[in-house]
From TrEMBL:
<keyword id="KW-0472">Membrane</keyword>
<keyword id="KW-0808">Transferase</keyword>
<dbReference type="GO" id="GO:0031501">
    <property type="term" value="C:mannosyltransferase complex"/>
</dbReference>
<feature type="transmembrane region" description="Helical">
    <location>
        <begin position="277"/>
        <end position="296"/>
    </location>
</feature>
<dbReference type="GO" id="GO:0000009">
    <property type="term" value="F:alpha-1,6-mannosyltransferase activity"/>
</dbReference>
<feature type="transmembrane region" description="Helical">
    <location>
        <begin position="333"/>
        <end position="350"/>
    </location>
</feature>
<dbReference type="GO" id="GO:0004376">
    <property type="term" value="F:GPI mannosyltransferase activity"/>
</dbReference>
<dbReference type="GO" id="GO:0016020">
    <property type="term" value="C:membrane"/>
</dbReference>
<feature type="transmembrane region" description="Helical">
    <location>
        <begin position="357"/>
        <end position="376"/>
    </location>
</feature>
<feature type="transmembrane region" description="Helical">
    <location>
        <begin position="209"/>
        <end position="229"/>
    </location>
</feature>
<dbReference type="InterPro" id="IPR007315">
    <property type="entry name" value="PIG-V/Gpi18"/>
</dbReference>
<feature type="transmembrane region" description="Helical">
    <location>
        <begin position="129"/>
        <end position="147"/>
    </location>
</feature>
<keyword id="KW-0256">Endoplasmic reticulum</keyword>
<feature type="transmembrane region" description="Helical">
    <location>
        <begin position="303"/>
        <end position="321"/>
    </location>
</feature>
<dbReference type="Pfam" id="PF04188">
    <property type="entry name" value="Mannosyl_trans2"/>
</dbReference>
<keyword id="KW-1133">Transmembrane helix</keyword>
<feature type="transmembrane region" description="Helical">
    <location>
        <begin position="94"/>
        <end position="117"/>
    </location>
</feature>
Amino acid sequence: MKRAPTRDILWLFLATRLLLVLVTYFGYILLTQDKYSGAPVAFSTFLNGWNQWDAKIYVHIAQFGYQPPYDLAFFPLFSLLIAIPGHVLGDWSYLPLGMLISNAALLASLFVLYHLAADSGGDQVARRSILYLCIFPTAFFFFTAYNESLFLFLSSGTLLALRRQKWWLAGVLGLLAALTRSAGIMLTAPYLYELWLARERIMIDKKKLLLSSLPILLIPLGMVLYSIYCWTLTGNFLTFVSVQAHWSRQTSWPWQGFIQTIFELFWHQPFGSFNQVHILIDATATISFISLVIAGRKKLRPTYTIWISLLLLSILISSSIGQRDPFISNRRFVLEMFPAFITLAMFTASRPRLHQALLWIFPALLAALSLLFVMGKWMV
């Protein structure tokens, strides 16, 4: 197994964190302070700029516990990791701890993803995969107190463990992923596929078969444990499902979101409106990653294609049909779909001009969207 370039990964991580810090500092001051003002902006103001939307909810759950029923839509592991040291350090610490955990999980993810990508396409593809992930226009969600980076680390770690046939490690990581996001339970499908690929090796004797197969039960156990917790609070095992409508999520056919998007973009929303741009960003992210799944299906290990296909299907059948933007938050959800970044890296390996274009476009959009998030604009 090729060793990950630790120094290069650390530099990539630190450089992209610095970019977000600079965006926060210069952007916030220049857009909020009066011209020629000599009044300083408190450090806490910069920090609180990242306490927006779902970050507020995760931090609030960590600090005060669940307020049923609507909070139960947010799975518990991320808030629990904040709460454990937060209760010791005090009220000031919850947001910084959430950001620290999110960034640490991203750093860990970069090492995991390097190995997954290197297995698929070599060192150059691996380096570009993690580069594109870090400079992707919505990668700022990895910086604040969102659970995207934690889920990315646990899900990609599960797939790396499966690739190395470390079944018990895969089961434990899958359990933790299922406690982080409801989508974590779908890791059972890649697990089953990897078992099938290794069937000749693990079916030599009953003990080996049992030790390889038994850990898969840990993955749904994560959701079972959370369901029991929901029952103790509300009397309903599936409260986290029943409250989705409150957060504008509902079960739909996969194509309904596309039909509504076309209608909104070309008929309902006036050209240049905030809603139109918002819809366009989410639709572009969704369509781009569907295209990358199709383009990468013959290049990647089938396990990765199964995983990203399930993730895409899950967001397509839970669109926000009741809102003007049916694909709301897809700009964020695609961050978890690491196989698409590997496919993109493979695609640009023979297209240097495209690679150079992405190196300009991605960071520019990342800076712009990060600033909108910090300013409290509708970036969820």
